[in-house]
Records
---
Amino acid sequence: MQDIDYRFCPLCGGSLAERLLKPREPKRLVCTDCGFIFYIDPKLAVLALIPLQGGIVLVRRSIEPGYGLWVVPGGFVDLGETVEEAVVREAQEETGLTVRVERLLKVYSYRHSRTVLLAYVTRRLDGELVAGDEELEARVFAPRDIPWSLIAFSSSRDSLKDFFSLSP
Ligand SMILES: [Zn+2]
């Protein structure tokens, strides 16, 4: 797991301490003053696989983590939107393209990561490919040209492999 270093109770400001509440579950952060249990839950994110011109759209990150590396467009699902809406929003923000969700490719989760990713195959409806605020560039890669050694995240690598049905 990535380090999450919460120290204070969000309800009363008391100190949080790690406690084993149930034998078969992980330790929980518990407020030593009011007893509030601070559950650290998975975060939900989406990936938008956008086929275009016989290839796939990738974006190069201009922020950490993964600065300068390529990823499948995507991001965290906001509270109050559906996952499909998040796919359309993130695709628009990161590539300038208006897409429609076609189908769920696969769900990815990793023991070392807090993020659960839903990868969707989309179809471009409109728009020109342009990099968003958090990208250095956006471009289409033919399957044989995908820069595997410069892909930032396991989820991007795994979803590209699954999309193109390559063996890992
Ligand atoms: Zn408290």
---
Amino acid sequence: MTNSLQNKNILVTGGAGFIGCALSQRLAAECKRYVAVDSLLAQVHPQQIRPTDLHAAAELVVADVTQPKTWTDLFAEFRPDIVVHLAAETGTGQSLKQSTMHGRSNVLGLTVLLDALSKNEIEPEQILCTSSRAVYGEGAWQKENGEIFYPGQRTNAQLASGKWDFDGVSLPSTFGDTRENPTSVYGATKLAQENILKSWSFSFGVPLTLLRLQNVYGPGQSPFNPYTGIVVLFSRLARAKKKVELYEDGLVTRDFVYIDDVVDALVKSVLQSPANGYRALDIGSGEVTTLIDIAQKIGNFHGAPESFISGKYRNGDVRHSSCNIAAAKQELGWQPESNLDKGLSLLQAYLSTVNLVEV
Ligand SMILES: NC(=O)c1ccc[n+]([C@@H]2O[C@H](COP(=O)([O-])OP(=O)(O)OC[C@H]3O[C@@H](n4cnc5c(N)ncnc54)[C@H](O)[C@@H]3O)[C@@H](O)[C@H]2O)c1
């Protein structure tokens, strides 16, 4: 399947992370050289060592994408044909209080990489970047009378009064159709990444693929990072036979997409450059799940006590998130294959192999 990669050099920034490791399992042995550049952030990799999930054929360069020297050193001996940009600070709630950290890695890190490509006269055959559902914020909603509206961001006063929803129903977001309106600094930096990449790639004629991912879950997800991965957080609590605390009224919804499906979309994108030089796709399972449902599924798995609704809330949290995956199916010939129950049980099996500290 991947014959076309045999002569390709692939650079994956953030390549030692959750998605990067899973991607390495599919591509590292298939291409000429596969180089993962990753600073091994302590929040994600508390032991700061090469993850066992990173394929043995992947070369790991432990370095920070924001440092020009990272690229001076690397590009002196490695010229990537394909760049997959995954490196990012990913704490949605955290980003509101540590915005500089998010801006630095996500925005500056990307521009430093692009400058280094220019300086070394490297015009890759394709750049791919994983953007996020977070760029939509609350996205578009529909009133009972059919009118579509953009509610913007829930205010602190609205959340404090317990009015969780707007008046209407949230619609699945669609790249190119749904207006972006990030409600977190993280989301804003992901949107900035998209815009920066579009300007650069269009100017130099470098084909670009942007994939806006919904909530990715599955084996290999950092069980240590307290700021991402609600499925992992719930799993850790349930495994410890603790009650899962649900914010708001427990009816917050997300699209949980299994890691293998996300990697499949990435691999298909790597293998087949966008026909017109650019594509931007939503990647999710296409299904919507409430947090109370997912907490119950995970709780049942471990025989944990019932979850409880605390009515607490987090500023910047989006009430509902889902997307339309029709364009990805058509453009990539891709289809999510996993089912939530199976995916959750594979994640539980993975977590049982990890030595976790107290939750
Ligand atoms: N996992 C999800 O649910 C999800 C959803 C939407 C978008 N995304 C995007 O996908 C990408 C990968 O996410 P992930 O889930 O694998 O996260 P992750 O935290 O597991 O991986 C990110 C990796 O980037 C590295 N990194 C961070 N800052 C860096 C820097 N300055 N220099 C070098 N390396 C750095 C980290 O050490 C980590 O290994 C990110 O861009 C994220 O925004 C993920």
